[in-house]
Backbone:
């Protein structure tokens, strides 16, 4: 067994090249994290290893993998380098298209690690708050941040681009960086005690946050999810959150009082007693928004009323509007195919839409889908909330941005947050993925297949999560 101690992607890449050249299988090598005693390879040895590897036959490694490995190397999982070498070995010796097999255990794990690191980078970009410091050297702005992973070198170029004419420093426990308006200079990590005291900039942050706070759209779970509690100590705006929450009912009452008339919504049509028969009957005559005027009929959800999985799409399409059933047109065919590939039975799933009427514009030959507005989705929201309240599913799957933004968070992004299980107001295991119509809109067969694979991958996760809930390993 060959044992190596590495810390960075560059160290691992040099050693991995030599191991591949020597045909060392993953089972015969062990990677450890860097210790305080340093690497088992000194600088000269590492240079010789890299030179020896590059002097031999070139090993073809997909650029996609190198980009992926560079990100995953920043994860805190102590087995990340072992996983990366196993994946690299399989890519170069067994299957060069392995990264496209999203159900493979190694690919699935490394993709999750990549997503966690990229999410942490996003949090750093969002939550770093600079404080102004005046010294003999002049004006400088300093921030302290505690990331989940070792992301400093991936994240800080963003700040150099955003604040090129400022002298600033970002301190983290692992590593710190200084920008002198010319280059990024990295140094050792620091504790929060090294950060400066609050300054007048924090008053500006609090004023700005108070101005954009919408008391009518309070979602505490989503707020904590997007702004984790561990970052609150460095975010000045969090000091006024409780004050804003306490004042929210008064502000909402004032907003309502200022409205010229009563805003229509499906809430005006909900039955007094919430039962399935009463709910379906009431939905037929819904006038909560103007979409009913042109649509053929209300398209309510269908499936077992005790289903453990609920799928929520955007709105009915042309075929659904005519048939009065969800997902029976071309998008429904794609969904059925994806469910079958993932090993899920549609007959056991409740399928519905966030908006119950078809919104369209007419061409000379057919009716063309139009995305419902935020106002229309909000007006229809009481129907889907009532369905979920009755079913109480174990897993809630949002198909597309409209459903995700309605049920998870208004700013939810499918491209950034797809495939991640999150708690929502309606289900502890809520996940968003691509809408089947996104596959139909893909411009090429290759892109359609790629997007379908991602949808199937997410549905496989749904099946796995359901098994975990069934066996009591997920609460």
Residues:
């Amino acid at each position: 067994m060959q044992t190596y101690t590495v810390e960075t992607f560059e160290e691992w890449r040099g050693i991995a090249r030599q191991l591949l050249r020597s045909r060392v299988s993953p089972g015969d090598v062990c990677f450890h994290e860097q210790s305080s005693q340093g690497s088992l390879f000194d600088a000269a040895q590492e240079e010789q290893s890299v030179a020896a590897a590059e002097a031999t036959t070139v090993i073809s490694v997909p650029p996609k993998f190198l980009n992926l490995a560079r990100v995953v190397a920043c994860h805190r999982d102590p087995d990340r380098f072992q996983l990366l070498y196993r994946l690299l070995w399989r890519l170069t010796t067994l299957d060069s298209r392995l990264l496209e097999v999203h159900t493979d255990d190694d690919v699935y794990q490394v993709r999750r690690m990549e997503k966690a690191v990229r999410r942490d980078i996003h949090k750093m970009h969002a939550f770093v708050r600079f404080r102004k410091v005046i010294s003999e050297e002049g004006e400088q702005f300093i921030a302290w941040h505690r990331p989940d992973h070792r992301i400093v070198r991936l994240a800080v170029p963003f700040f150099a681009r955003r604040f090129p004419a400022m002298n600033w420093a970002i301190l983290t426990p692992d590593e710190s960086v200084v920008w002198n308006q010319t280059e990024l200079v990295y140094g050792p990590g620091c504790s929060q005690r090294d950060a400066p005291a609050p300054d007048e900039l924090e008053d500006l942050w609090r004023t700005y946050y108070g101005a954009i706070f919408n008391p009518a759209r309070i979602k505490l779970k989503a707020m904590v999810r997007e702004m984790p509690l561990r970052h609150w100590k460095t975010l000045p705006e969090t000091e006024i959150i409780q004050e804003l929450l306490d004042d929210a009912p008064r502000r909402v009452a004032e907003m309502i009082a200022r409205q010229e008339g009563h805003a229509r919504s499906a809430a005006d049509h909900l039955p007094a007693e919430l039962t399935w028969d009463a709910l379906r009957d009431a939905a037929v005559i819904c006038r909560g928004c103007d979409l009913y005027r042109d649509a053929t009929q209300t398209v309510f959800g269908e499936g077992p009323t005790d289903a453990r999985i609920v799928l929520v799409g955007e709105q009915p399409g042309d075929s659904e509007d005519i048939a009065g059933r969800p997902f029976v047109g071309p998008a429904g065919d794609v969904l059925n195919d994806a469910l079958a590939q993932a090993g899920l039975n549609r007959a056991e799933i409740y399928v519905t839409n966030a908006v119950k009427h078809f919104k369209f514009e007419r061409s000379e030959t057919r009716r063309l889908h139009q995305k419902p507005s935020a106002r229309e989705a909000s007006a229809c929201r009481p129907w889907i909330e009532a369905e979920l309240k009755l079913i109480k599913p174990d897993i809630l799957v949002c198909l597309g941005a409209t459903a995700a933004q309605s049920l998870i968070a208004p700013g939810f992004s499918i491209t950034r947050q797809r495939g991640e299980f999150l708690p929502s107001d309606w289900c502890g295991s809520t996940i968003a993925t691509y809408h089947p119509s996104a596959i139909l809109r893909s411009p090429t067969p290759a892109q359609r297949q790629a997007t379908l694979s991602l949808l199937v991958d997410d549905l496989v996760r749904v099946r796995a999560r359901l098994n975990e809930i069934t066996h009591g390993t997920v609460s």
